[in-house]
Amino acid sequence: MTVQTPVPMDKATFLGWAERQEENYELVRGRVVMMTGGPRGHSHILFNLATALDTRIDLDTWAVLPEFGVEVGPATIRFPDIVVDPAGGAVTDRTATAPVLIAEVMSPSSARIDLGDKAAEYLRLPSLGTYVVVASDEIKLWVWTRTATGFSSGPVVLGDIAASVEVPALGIALPLAEIYARVQLD
Fold first, then answer.
1. pLDDT tens digits for 82-124?
2. Residues 43, 51: contact at Cβ < 8 Å?
3. What is the distance between the alpha carbons of residues 56 and 83, in angstroms, rounded to a whole number?
4. Do residues 69 and 79 lie in contact, with contact meaning Cβ atoms separated by under 8 Å?
5. Cα 163 to Cα 180: distance, rounded to the nearest angstrom
6. CA 118 to chain centre
7. How far is CA 118 from CA 53, 83, 93, 124, in A?
8. Between 173 and which of 1, 94, 164, 180 could a Cys-Cys bridge form, CB atoms 3.0 to 4.6 Å apart?
9. Where does the Putative restriction endonuclease domain start and stop, copy by copy (predicted)?
């Protein structure tokens, strides 16, 4: 029996290959990993979050980019659900230049990666001010915010619909009521 292992890719090769694929992929430590689509709640939260950001930020300064590439290591490119990056990038850019906010909408099956691997990778980005993980099955957010001394050892956890996520780098607050608007949770 022969077992074939995938051939590692560099970032440039991956980006060229990925744009020709119908499905979505990430490059993780040189290996191609397929991303699956989320359920209705995931899509609804993603839309609400993008809309809340888009209506609050200075669009001449910042761009809200859903599922846009972020280089997080020498052989890793992630595609977070939401990236806020400086505005004015070329239409052909495939990765963020200096993301200040990254958000992931988490399903129960992605918790280990979103709260573990991705958190560790994103928090190393020098430009990042806030990383947010939004649960799709309950009202709960994990928020890491950079201070003058860096990121704390763990996130602030929000679970009150009346709360807001403060994003100091953008000078805005995002109400949980807007993030979860019209989302039917069981």
1. 999 999 999 999 999 999 999 999 988 889 999 999 999 999 9
2. no
3. 15
4. yes
5. 12
6. 9
7. 21, 13, 22, 10
8. 164
9. 13-157
Unique residue bearing structure tokens 């939004």: 134
**Distance (Å, rounded) from C-alpha 90 to C-alpha 117?**
29
CB atoms within 10 A of CB 7: 9
Tell me if 132 sits within 8 A of 123, measured CB to CB: no
Alpha-carbon distance of 179 to 161, in angstroms, equals: 9
Using left for φ > 0, alpha for ψ between -120 and 50, and beta otherwise, residue 79 falls in beta
Q: What is the pLDDT of residue 3?
A: 38
Domains, the chain: 37-179 (3.90.1570.10)
Give the position of tokens 């939401």. 82
Q: Which of the four pLDDT bands, split at 50, 70 and 90, describes residue 6?
A: low
> Is residue 111 within 8 Å of 98, Cβ to Cβ?
no
Cβ atoms of residues 98 and 72 within 8 Å: no
Tokens of 52: 């809340």
Tokens 């992929």 sit on residue:
25
